[in-house]
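User: Please predict structures.

Assistant: First:
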Amino acid sequence: MTEADMSQPNEDQLPLGPWDAGALATLEAWDRSWADACRTMSTDPWSGKVLPLRMVELVCVATSVACTTLDGAATRRHMRAALAAGASRDELMTIVKMATVMAIHSCSLGAPILLEEAAAAGAALPSHPATPTPACDAMKRLGQWNQAWDPFFALDPAWTDAFMATGAGIYSAGVFTAKETELLSIAFDVSFRHMYAPGTRRHIHGALAAGASVAEIMEVLKLCVAQGVAASNLGVAILAEELARPAHGG
């Protein structure tokens, strides 16, 4: 064996990353060349060259548990790996909370359109009595208020404040650094299951301002691409089961 050969990692020592071990083994048996190429690409962020393993796994928890994804198997796999890499319960619970409140993008998208169409139709807007909005005020003090929220605040300030009460604590608890919060937020917004451009731009801007490097942000994007492996984890396993049915001759 040459020195060059010895410097290459053994195939069995490569990280699984986003892969289900059983699906990967089946895929390798069917199409080793493509499986090797896809595994090399998708597991690159696990090399530790840019982000620490703990952060890699936390990003994967975020993209798996997001309300736009809800991949139970991947969430469990990456939560387990994150805990093994030193993540805490509070960190993982914070990601679950972030994954929950990202559903506000339904209003970010829909409320401006509602206001425009209501104006075009001459429809009356709902009236609301003046009421304190302490949670919204807190989000503004934290610098977490997004102008995209102004339209639904105008439509229903009391409900908006109730929603923001669920978000203010997430960002004020100090579980993550500002940079980590922004990197995780990028993952939520840029994931191919979501692709929310306004939030992606806002959080990339925030990540750079918080000290993140371009390489670190690119690593988050690569982890979101690695999430595509979920198609193989699901499809290969089902195909193997269907091929094993008697009708297919085993």
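Second:
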Amino acid sequence: MLQISRTLTLPDTELTERFLRADGPGGQHVNRTESAVELRFDVASSPSLPEPVRARLLSRRDRRMTDEGVLVIQARRFREQARNRDDARERLADIVRGALAAPKKRLATRPTRASKERRLAGKQQRGKLKQGRSRDWSGE
């Protein structure tokens, strides 16, 4: 059971773990043990996720999400399989926690009069600077 928040948990039956050989330091040991973890979670067909959370997760532009709606997390940071397994589960929990809160709507605002004047003054100053360069260069 993976605890996401007080109200949301993901049962272990919805998580698929695959262990594979990791690259990196470890000597001969790294060639013999399968310490890296690939954690898969089917977001599209998970009955545990509320519909708004599922929609937010699926709408994210994330390279870890497959076209079928499966979130794939690879953990190979540590040399021990157990630590990589915990790392993958924690990263999955962080991703789902990020989708729990709905993003705030952006309130349309207008630029103030002073900010418009500052912008235009800056443009005029820049234009005069460039104009001054061209006169000096022509030899006049």
